[in-house]
Predict the structure.
Amino acid sequence: MDFFSIGLTLACVSAAGGALWRVRTWFLRGKAFAKGGNTGPGVFRRFVGGLADVILLRRTLRDGPARWTGHMLLVLGFLPLIFLHAMDDVVTRPIFSAYEPTLDPWQFLRNLFGLISLTGLAILAMHRITRLKHESIAQDWALLAVIGGVLVSGFFLESFKIMSPGDFTRMTDDYFPEAESEELLALKTYWARENGVRFTIFLPTAPEITELGAQLHEDRCAGCHAPTATAFVSRSMTALVPSSMNIADQGRTVLWYAHVALAFIALGLLPWGKFFHPVATAANLLVRGGSRTSSAGNSSFSSGLALDACTRCGQCSLHCSVAPIHKVLGNRDILPMDKLLDLRQHLDGSLSPTGTAALVEGSHICTECLRCTQVCSAGIDLQDLWATSKKVLTEAGRAGVDGEIRKSTAAEWARDFSSRNLGRIGSTGAGLADRAESFWGCVQCTTCTGVCPVVAVSEDPSRDLDLAPQQIMNLLRMGLKAQTLGARMVWSCTTCYKCQEHCPQGVPVADILYELRQLGADNLRKKEGRA
Amino acid sequence: MKTYDVMVIGSGFAGMAAALFAANRGLSVVQTGATGGIDFSTGFIDLLAVHPIAEQKVWEDPFAALAALRRDLPAHPYCRVSDDEISLALQEFTNFLGQHGLCYRGRDKKNTLALTSAGTLKPTYLLPCTLWNGVEAREKKANTLIVDFHGLKGLSARQIAEVRKDWPNLKTARINFPGMGGELYPEHMAWSLADPARRAELAEMVAPLAVEAQYVGFPAILGMTDTSIVLRHMEELLGRPVFEIPTLPPSIAGPRLRAAFDRGLPGLGVRTCTQKLVTRAESSEAGFHFTAGSGSTSVDISARSAILASGRFFGKGLKADRHHIHEAIFDLPVTQPENRGRWHRPAFFDPQGHEINQAGLETDAGLRPLGADGKPFHPRLHAAGAILAHQDWMRMKCGAGLAIATAYKAVASL
């Protein structure tokens, strides 16, 4: 067994075994979310919708052209490379009888596809650096690095092969063993001039020798070798190596190992984290069938798949309604992308107690505003995952700040908060709720309450919500903040912003409710003696 | 960027009317404005009922009142519009509302006394059809039951009965609103009555109380966008005429009006920038450039002409600091009391009214507001509605009528 077969076997075993393990989690994790199956629109329409999302990357387009273009280029360039180049012995050669990797169009196409992939990858890397630097973790960079490594090492490998005199000798030994030394010299002259091979010996320039070289090339080589100039990227890259350096043979060997090893690493890592997203996300998009809304009652399989389909594109975290609370509290489980990661660990039973506390807190700061579901380019029904995971956590006795708050009425909390020495309620005392200007214009007209969908679905707002939005504003403008922190209205707000939009006097009603929520979480931390 | 024929600044009665009239005349219209006065409307369209305010003289014929007003107060904005223009304006306005499910009714050249939530009578010119049976019931002093609800603050039937001693056959009842408890808000109740089953539940509770009644009155909660259907269904279920009484502001009448315009104006090609106030305005010979809203959702607008219907203080057309009153968008000169001491009289209910309520913009005959030099500020800037000076619409009972009529005139003068 040589390096190649061992590597390939290991990579394949890792990829296949890992993939099976990943798919197994689709079935297992979803079971924690035990629910009935889901019947959406017709099977055909869903199939077409899902397929369109997979092929056209429709959801990625939502976020502007950069990510979509990057992905499209990478997919259009990389898939042909995998099938036509990496798997040429099983795909290309059986289909095209005259296939030789060094013949056109293959040689040219390999460079073209490589260049397309690399352009796409560069766009994606730039996008991540400029827009998502803070949201990114090691595996995000690892994926970019491995794919980039495969592409760049491939170009260098071809470039060094072009220059390598050793390869030339190996070929002439195999295919032109009867060559006279003069013929060999002529052929070398031709290949050095036309195809960029770098020989260390002196080569003559006499026209009759070049003529002979061209003749011999035509007879002996041209059947399998197109001019290396059509490998337009690799051939140009030979200029990067100074002609005084004779490293082509050694470099070629090193780069072959590097390129092949990187390709095996990429294959072996396929089931690891984000590397699996081309499979998991595509499967999820198909299962979602083009739907962009949340549908309660997804089947346990589709929930399990959804949990695994994140591409870590960061859109959900960038658009999260409660992201500012993350800035204040520093709990990364407030943001959907990281919460999903910890939720998976929690379902697998491998989340630490501190991690679980963070997950519970983050889950209950979420307002289920639906935004993450709408922007998710992987089509994950995050809204449904949050709704269910909250229920699962609550059933496991982890009701979080939301559940704690609901154990007492607003009035009981008010007593609790005013008896407890919490300093100024709300750390700095400089929040929206502390500022007289916030309520300057409030005329207690009840418009905010009138348009509130949360109040609307309540059969008895004073019983279910303690206080209506305009009553909270009234208490706050009188400086009675402690009275409002435990109001269940605050903890039932969906941050739809209708109140704020409709307020005739410009009172930032939703922003204030939101701030109270963050203060509530903060106070509960202090009460429980957490940092 | 598209240049519109006209930019309407404001989405109260005047702004809505101006956008409607301009669109009906084939102009391209863009409109901005946020929640304001119209959302707190009772739904009544007053034309003119009280003049002079110091005497609190109530007129039955609004056009006779107008003639007197034009004689006594030559600076009043009603002097800029003729009776014919007023009638045409009201007709066009109520036709549009009728097409969008809000039917209006009144008496030819006569004010009607309408029942308020306090039990008082308010002279008004046109009123929503859902209120009309109440007018008839009161005029006939018929056997009537007024129902109110536990938890709804905006209307007390008992209060109405106490005040209306002249209507002995008026009975009252307080019941629980089906499916809701605790504190109730009109908008939620109105939406919930979109469900016929909920109406049936309500009728079932009211029917035994209404055996002797010829009419049944409710607080204005009978539907949001399907008011006439809800009313007719309730009449069917109860077997007698039903009417509404507007609740304290914000009553459902305001959101109903806004909803009708929100549905109807885009259909006429009006581009509406809802919930956006103008944050920047520039004018030149060629026209106007505006920015509406702020931050990432702001929009830039170009228009050849503009109608300033931004209202008074609540609509944010006028802004008062400690000493002076300013016009919010172009900083036009505002006619106002000499100093702050004269803004208000000592008694809030002083029959003379308060001088600050006459503050506003001066205009020429074509309702073009005047600049600092006493000449029109811009040849194609017009003003309409409450922002105009020399009128106290609250005390004169002329708010909606004045807004609609001046909007009509402003559009006609474009």
User: Anything to note?
Assistant: Residues 165-252 of chain A form one domain. The mean pLDDT of chain A is 87. Chain A touches chain B through 18 residues (CB under 8 Å). DSSP finds 31 helices and no strands in chain A.
